[in-house]
Amino acid sequence: MPTPSQPTAILGYSLFATRWLQAPLYFGLVAAQGVYVYKFFRELWTLILRSVTGQADETYVMLAVLKLVDVVMIANLLIMVIVGGYETFVSRIGLQGHRDQPEWLSHVNSNVLKVKLATAIVGISSVHLLQMFVDVHHTSHHSLLWGTVIHMAFIASAAILAYMSGPMAAQGERLHRGHGLTPVYASHEGAAHEGAGRAAGGTNGSSVPAEFAVAARTAPVARVTVPIPAQTVSSPYETYETYDSYVSYDAHETHETCDVQDPAEPGAEARIREARFPARKLLEEFDEEYPRVLDRKAVHRLGGLDFVAARRNVVFIGPPGTGKTHLAVGLGVRACQSGHQVAFATAAQWAARLADARSAGRLTEELADLDACPLLIVDEVGYTPLDPDTAHLFFQLVAHRYERSSLIVTTDRPLGRWEEVFGGAAPAMVDRLAHHAEIVRLEGDSYRMRQVTSAWAE
Fold first, then answer.
1. Residue predicted with more confidence, 178 or 284
2. Is 254 left (phi over 0), alpha (psi -120 to 50) or beta?
3. pLDDT above 70 coverage of the chain, percent
4. Cross-strand partners of 440
5. Which helix (H) or strand (E) covers residue 438, if one does?
6. 273 vs 135, more confident
7. Counting beta carbons within 10 angstroms of the beta carbon of residue 15, is it exposed (0 to 12), middle (13 to 18) or buried (19 or more)?
8. Which of 299, 374, 384, 456 is 20 to 30 Å from 335 by CA-CA measure?
9. Is the pLDDT at 123 greater than 90, yes or no?
10. By the 8 A CB rule, do 77 and 121 touch?
11. In this predicted model, what pLDDT tens digit does every residue of 86-113 receive, in sequence order?
């Protein structure tokens, strides 16, 4: 693809910068919301006074409450337009990991925003129509007729928008995740789609390694919709009794790339096998009621895998046995099912792999090869302190993948205590890891210890 000339690039950036002209409009809507706050409390004060003085009958109270509901719904519509519109059309707000982040904001886009606004308008119209019917003796038949017609028009418009947004959202999702459906990877300096085009055409100088180019030409991986059967386990938080049978690291084994599936094997199953999970765990099997503290909405939101496409990180923090690894593996399995390459290992195993690459003088190449995996999972961070050299290796891994690919990290220590594990490298590492990350905290007793205690009691 030809590189745009400098004047063209400057013109494009200048046009893109004009989006900030919309920012004052959203702040103007904030002022309008203040007006509605004043209107709400004025109506509420009037209702209280008339109720206390006996001047309010049942019809008046009902109409006054409906007015208050109307004001609140309009205010909700305003906040949706302000926050969602600013996030969609001006700039990201960056609430990822904030405990008060609205659930709908994590997947907001122009289609979602239009449907939500249309639904809110239908709700407001419903309140207005209900007010007319409550006060039917003082409302003309002409007003009732047109109020009903207008309300039905709003409902029809919302239904049409919702119907149209479904196929559009599905198509956008396919395009958004299309890079994960074929085993074609770009170097850490190139674009995956551009590399795929060169690999398919066999052009020399492609940033795609030759073995990936062959796979791209001969066996493109389609989206796999066959569900993976759940593994029968004794508990959702099974200990690593057979860990070595799933994951092993040979110091003399070469890891030139993130493993790529054999074209003869089913895509999703091959990716799951090559991810080297300690056991197959599914998000659906996770017992959400067991941890005393868990942001369940955040877990459901992460299950949509938007964080992988956005190249963001996930950090699960909690004591042993609370389900951190189960959630990490569950997200990894789902990512494999969605067409993404995933690599799983404990912190100790990643340290051994990176140390081996450094000893061989190919640490830079190893980090670049790991770019083939959009998602890496680092389990059991913080269980043992690391020497300064190993801590620096982890820093290089986190820094290399910063805003480039996603990491899932499980740890038993809050990020503020990572200096106990990584020493002086901790502040810079935490800064990069947590900048674009969803922090999920789990608290509760160990599931495994509860099973042991139950066995003793029996």
1. 284
2. beta
3. 70
4. 316
5. strand 437-441
6. 273
7. exposed
8. 384
9. no
10. yes
11. 877 888 776 655 556 665 565 556 666 6
Structural contact between residues 76 and 120, judged by C-beta atoms closer than 8 angstroms? yes
Each residue of 404-420: b (16+ CB within 10 Å) or e?
A: ebbbbbbbbbebeebbe
Beta strands in 265-326 (DSSP E): 313-317
Can you tell me which residue has the tokens 């299950």? Answer: 303
Backbone angles phi, psi at 437, to 5 degrees: -145, 150
Give the integer Cα–Cα distance in Å for 199 and 313: 29
pLDDT at position 373 is 94
Geometric angle at alpha carbon 84, from 305 and 335, rounded to 5°? 5
Which residue ranges make up each domain of the chain?
11-175, 177-220, 226-457
Residue type at 403 in one-letter notation: E
Integer Cα distance of 173 and 309 in angstroms: 10
Taking the alpha carbons at both ends of the chain, their separation in whole angstroms is 70
Contact 81, 109 (CB under 8 A): no
Amino acid type, 314:
V
Q: What is the pLDDT of residue 279?
A: 92
Amino acid residing at 357: A
CA neighbor of 334 nearest in space, from 360, 299, 363? 299
Instruction: Give the SS3 label for residue 378.
Output: strand
Q: Which of 341, 367, 371, 369 is nearest to 354 (CA)?
A: 367
296 neighbors 288 (Cβ within 8 angstroms): yes
How much is the mean pLDDT over the chain? 76
Which residue in this structure is represented by tokens 């405990």?
99
State the CATH class of domain 226-457.
Answer: alpha beta
* Tokens of residue 83, six digits: 């926050």
Q: Would you say the pTM of this structure is higher than 0.85?
A: no
- What's the pLDDT tens digit per position in 31-72? 999 998 999 999 999 999 999 998 888 888 888 898 898 888
Q: Which two tokens stand for residue 36?
A: 């509605």
